[in-house]
């Protein structure tokens, strides 16, 4: 079932939770609503689910306006952040609930309910646990009971609020993969809310990035990562160095550095936001190209298989974060307090008009670390 | 946690009728059972005019009853306050075996009928009581005298302060006290500078409730007092005597003082509750 | 093997405060209470049995337990309703109503007793209307039920209220999203969560009503075999200096109270255990 959200707005007192939201979701899509706390993503999900009423605008499911429809008539499966399992009911009773509360005419027989519940528990890999109470389950198991319970009513749309938020890293990893697989099998239109960009990039077909009640950008992982619509999206998708620069004579100046880009003359003298991902910061032991600045390694630490390096660069107020491979660190013998030279191999600039400009270093130095293999963070 | 605004429950339109119906029933029930009796007390007390009202309050026996009630509360409340603090410290800040049994025992006086609460002291100190020979030897009278009234009052108000403090102190944990300890504070310093400020509103609440019960206790005190006018009559007992003499206006006049005490207690309780919520809120 | 009965703590004064607690508890509560059983133990068991099964006494049990049970049931229904209204709805005067619920805790029972009698007697505000329908409340068992309902009112409200407040709103939304009607959600999702609190509130109100004296003596009329509750019977035996008889009845009442106390602890222990694991 497709979902169309039309100019939806919602305020709580003076707080604008949603402002003029428009969104089209195709049948069978897997969508992530991504944003920080208070961005309105959960509110949007709850309005689609009928748990909250918008001030204006409409939600159409299969081109049908839902405004006057009760939540219980929408046939939407909803998985809550903390699962909201009925704690006085067993796993079986939880999953069967949606079938048992149907009116006499529509209610399946006891036998049918039983076989449907068993089938669902098999689907979520919880066979044999039907007599347990929620308090006797692990977090991941509860999550799957919540999902089975939502699926029992054969929903046309599945909504999940921070589905992996309360789980530890390892279980989260597993469940993400499993959710993708499940979506592939069932092909139900699915929307999930998350504040974790990695989760969104990994699981969703399409990502809707939200901030302050507005949609910043909607698109595939590729689109969003490579063609961010604004500074917010770029910053939100992964770590980034944010440095203030200014424009003079058609180029961008960052501290003592000059980045050669095609900047229109009209914005001369204005400030510009320069964003550099840590892996795009090149480190060399000697100055080999003109676009390098002297820096000192202030701190270094292992982060997974890579080394994170914090640097104090000449003429730049902020600590610059860089990332190098272990091999490269060994190769140039990088250590704390060492004096090095850094360069920005790639950067994103957002001028006063908010339009992105790509910058790529014109000098290619052999002494710099090998070019980055992947632009998207490691997806397993 | 995601949404800074608390979720608003969806109220289906058909629910409004049910809602007002339920609110209406609740109002009616509370009006009949709570407001009407309260109103009646003042109405009956003032029925014969302010003059008669004041006269029945300033009459010597009434004044003696008021004095005895105040004295009883002035002894029983501090005793139970000290007990409440000691018990809540031991129970809330330490883990030991038998804690649940101790908690149940502290609750015991709540489960005992007021009449029985009085009876037990008669059995101990009455003319046929266990300690009767001893008391006779030193010519001490407890039953049908002020000490008996105080003992019975201490018994019935026993759990109030402890009952308020224990859950409050348990919910606050021991981290702050441990931090104070690690910074070198002594036991008294920990108590007065860390624990007491955290529990002061709960403490006040417990004291208010304890006081209300101490001043208003009827059954237990009735058993041990002997109803000697001007000597062993507390205010509630005085109300009973006047009522049984068909001196209704005077009975309600004294009762109105106790009703006022109840109203003050409820207001104080609301303020304290509000303060606790407020304190909790700002602590977060 | 030495069993550890207290966990280590860096905080001071454990022995002092616990010692004082136990001393004070023994002095003012345990020792006096044990007097009842000591006294009972010295009595002739045959005479004791005759005392506690005397027809007038049996009638008082029936009245005390029956009226307390009815009052506690009334309070269970209306207490749930009041708690629901206070937690779920907003309306003018809510704070005042919420505060007022505790009035029976704060108002001396004797005051409540004379006020209720004044209201329900034949020429009282309500009594004279009921009179028109031939209903008598004061000086009948109904009057006792009214008084016991008054004094037990806060128990159910105050046990149910916090549970209702803490109920996860998402659980109800989950039920609705699965297609449950409002009534189904209430009956199948909310009510089961409230059962332990309702039962605890009922037991507390019942226990309180069973021992109540002050508010009942005025409204009941104290007619033997008709409106004489057990605490009153204990009182009249005491006034006749029949200490043995009074003690025997007290022992029966205490036993009933302890059973109730045990029952309440059992409910709390069971619910605590069931939901303890992470929630």
TrEMBL record, chain A:
Residues 3-237 form the ABC transporter domain. PROSITE patterns: ABC_TRANSPORTER_1 (PS00211), ABC_TRANSPORTER_2 (PS50893). GO terms for cellular component: ATP-binding cassette (ABC) transporter complex. Gene3D superfamilies: P-loop containing nucleotide triphosphate hydrolases. One of its GO terms (molecular function) is ATP hydrolysis activity. InterPro entries: AAA+_ATPase, ABC_SmlMolc_Importer, ABC_transporter-like_ATP-bd, ABC_transporter-like_CS, Mo/tungstate-bd_C_term_dom, P-loop_NTPase, Sulph_transpt1, TOBE-like. Transmembrane segments: none annotated. The keyword Cell membrane applies. Keywords: ATP-binding, Cell membrane, Membrane, Nucleotide-binding, Sulfate transport, Translocase, Transport. It holds the Pfam family ABC_tran. This is Sulfate/thiosulfate import ATP-binding protein CysA. It comes from Aneurinibacillus aneurinilyticus ATCC 12856.
From TrEMBL, chain B:
GO terms for molecular function: ABC-type sulfate transporter activity. InterPro entries: CysW_permease, MetI-like, MetI-like_sf, Sulph_transpt2. It is found in: Cell inner membrane. Signal peptide: none annotated. Keywords: Cell inner membrane, Cell membrane, Membrane, Sulfate transport, Transmembrane, Transmembrane helix, Transport. Its main location: membrane. It is a multi-pass membrane protein. Residues 66-269 form the ABC transmembrane type-1 domain. Part of the ABC transporter complex CysAWTP (TC 3.A.1.6.1) involved in sulfate/thiosulfate import. Probably responsible for the translocation of the substrate across the membrane. This is Sulfate transport system permease protein CysW.
From TrEMBL, chain C:
GO terms for molecular function: ABC-type sulfate transporter activity. CDD domains: TM_PBP2. The chain crosses the membrane at residues 12-38, 65-87, 99-121, 133-157, 243-264. It comes from the Bacteria. SUPFAM superfamilies: MetI-like. Residues 61-264 form the ABC transmembrane type-1 domain. It is a multi-pass membrane protein. It holds the Pfam family BPD_transp_1. Its main location: membrane. It is found in: Membrane. One of its GO terms (cellular component) is plasma membrane. Keywords: Membrane, Sulfate transport, Transmembrane, Transmembrane helix, Transport. Part of the ABC transporter complex (TC 3.A.1.6.1) involved in sulfate/thiosulfate import. Belongs to the binding-protein-dependent transport system permease family. CysTW subfamily. The complex is composed of two ATP-binding proteins (CysA), two transmembrane proteins (CysT and CysW) and a solute-binding protein (CysP). This is Sulfate transport system permease protein CysT. The lineage of its organism: Bacteria, Bacillati, Bacillota, Bacilli, Bacillales.
């Amino acid at each position: 079932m497709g979902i169309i959200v039309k100019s939806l707005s919602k305020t709580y007192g003076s707080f604008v939770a949603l402002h003029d939201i428009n969104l089209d979701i195709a049948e069978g899509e897997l969508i992530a609503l991504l944003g920080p706390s208070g961005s309105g993503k959960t509110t949007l999900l709850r309005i689609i689910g009928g748990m909250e009423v918008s001030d204006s605008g409409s939600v159409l499911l299969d081109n049908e306006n839902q405004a006057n429809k009760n939540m219980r008539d929408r046939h939407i499966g909803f998985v809550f952040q903390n699962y909201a399992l009925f704690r006085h009911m067993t796993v079986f009773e939880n999953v069967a609930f949606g079938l048992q509360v149907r009116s006499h005419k529509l209610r399946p027989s006891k036998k049918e309910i039983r076989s449907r519940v068993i089938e669902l528990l098999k689907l979520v890999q919880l066979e044999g646990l039907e007599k347990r109470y929620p308090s006797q389950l692990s977090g991941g198991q509860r999550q799957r009971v919540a999902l089975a319970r939502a699926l029992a009513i054969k929903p046309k749309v599945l909504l999940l609020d921070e589905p992996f938020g309360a789980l530890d890293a390892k279980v989260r990893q597993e469940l993400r993969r499993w959710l993708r697989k499940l979506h592939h099998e069932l092909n139900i239109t699915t929307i999930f809310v998350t504040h974790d960009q990695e989760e969104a990039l990994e699981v969703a077909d399409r990502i809707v990035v939200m901030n302050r009640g507005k949609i910043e950008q909607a698109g595939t992982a590729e689109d969003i990562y490579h063609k961010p619509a604004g500074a917010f999206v770029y910053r939100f998708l992964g770590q980034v160095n944010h440095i203030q620069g200014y424009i003079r004579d058609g180029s961008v100046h960052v501290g003592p550095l000059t980045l050669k880009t095609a900047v229109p003359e009209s914005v001369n003298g204005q400030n510009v936001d320069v964003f550099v991902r840590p892996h795009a910061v090149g480190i060399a032991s000697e100055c080999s190209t003109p676009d390098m600045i002297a820096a000192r390694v202030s701190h270094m630490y292992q982060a997974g298989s890579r080394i994170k390096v914090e640097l104090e660069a000449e003429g730049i107020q902020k600590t610059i974060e860089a990332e190098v491979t272990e091999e490269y660190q060994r190769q140039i013998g990088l250590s704390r307090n060492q004096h090095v030279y850094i360069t920005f191999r790639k950067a994103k600039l957002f001028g006063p008009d908010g339009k992105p400009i790509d910058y790529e270093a014109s000098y290619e130095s052999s002494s710099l670390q090998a070019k980055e293999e992947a632009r998207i963070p490691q997806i397993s | 946690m995601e949404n800074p605004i608390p979720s608003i429950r969806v109220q289906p339109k058909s629910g409004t009728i049910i809602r007002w119906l339920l609110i209406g029933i609740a109002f009616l029930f509370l009006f009949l059972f709570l407001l009407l009796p309260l109103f009646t007390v003042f109405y009956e007390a003032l029925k014969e005019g302010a003059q008669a009202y004041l006269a029945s309050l300033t009459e010597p026996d009434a004044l003696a009853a008021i004095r005895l009630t105040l004295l009883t509360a002035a002894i029983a409340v501090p005793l139970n306050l000290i007990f409440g603090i000691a018990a809540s410290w031991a129970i809330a800040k330490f883990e030991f075996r038998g804690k649940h049994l101790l908690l149940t025992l502290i609750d015991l006086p709540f489960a005992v009928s007021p009449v029985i609460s009085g009876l037990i002291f008669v059995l101990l100190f009455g003319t046929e009581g266990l300690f009767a020979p001893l008391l006779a030897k030193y010519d001490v009278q407890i039953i049908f005298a002020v000490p008996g009234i105080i003992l019975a009052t201490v018994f019935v108000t026993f759990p109030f302060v402890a009952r308020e403090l224990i859950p409050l102190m348990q919910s606050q944990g021991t981290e702050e006290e441990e931090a104070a300890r690690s910074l070198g504070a002594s036991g008294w310093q920990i108590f007065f500078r860390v624990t007491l400020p955290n529990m002061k509103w709960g403490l006040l609440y417990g004291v208010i409730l304890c006081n209300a019960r101490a001043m208003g206790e009827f059954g237990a005190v009735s058993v041990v007092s002997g109803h000697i006018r001007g000597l062993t009559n507390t205010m509630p007992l005085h109300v009973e005597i006047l009522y049984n003499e068909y001196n209704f206006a005077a009975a309600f006049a004294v009762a109105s003082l106790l009703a006022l005490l109840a109203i003050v207690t409820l207001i104080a309780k609301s303020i304290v509750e509000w303060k606790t919520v407020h304190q909790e809120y700002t602590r977060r | 093997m030495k069993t550890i009965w207290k966990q280590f703590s860096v905080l001071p004064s454990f022995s002092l405060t616990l010692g004082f607690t136990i001393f004070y508890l023994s002095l003012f509560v345990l020792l006096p209470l044990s007097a009842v059983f000591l006294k009972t133990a010295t009595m002739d068991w045959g005479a004791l049995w005759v005392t506690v099964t005397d027809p007038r006494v049996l009638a008082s049990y029936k009245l005390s337990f029956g009226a307390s049970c009815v009052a506690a049931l009334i309070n269970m229904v209306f207490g749930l309703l009041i708690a629901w209204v206070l937690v779920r709805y907003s309306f003018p005067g809510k704070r005042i109503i919420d505060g007022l619920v505790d009035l029976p805790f704060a108002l001396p029972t004797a005051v409540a007793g004379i006020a209720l009698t004044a209201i329900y007697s034949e020429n009282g505000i309500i009594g004279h209307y009921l009179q028109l329908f031939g209903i008598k409340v004061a000086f009948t068992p109904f009057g006792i039920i009214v008084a016991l309902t008054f004094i037990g009112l806060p128990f159910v409200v105050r046990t149910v209220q916090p549970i209702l407040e803490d109920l996860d709103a998402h659980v109800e939304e989950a039920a609705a999203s699965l297609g449950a009607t409002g009534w189904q959600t209430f009956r199948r999702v909310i009510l089961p969560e409230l059962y332990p609190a309702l039962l605890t509130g009922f037991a507390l109100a019942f226990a309180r009503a069973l021992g109540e004296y002050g508010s009942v003596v005025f409204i009941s009329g104290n007619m033997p075999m008709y409106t004489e509750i057990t605490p009153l019977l204990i009182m009249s035996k005491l006034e006749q200096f029949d200490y043995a008889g009074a003690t025997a009845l007290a022992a029966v009442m205490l036993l009933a109270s302890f059973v109730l106390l045990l029952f309440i602890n059992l409910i709390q222990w069971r619910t605590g255990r069931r939901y303890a694991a992470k929630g």
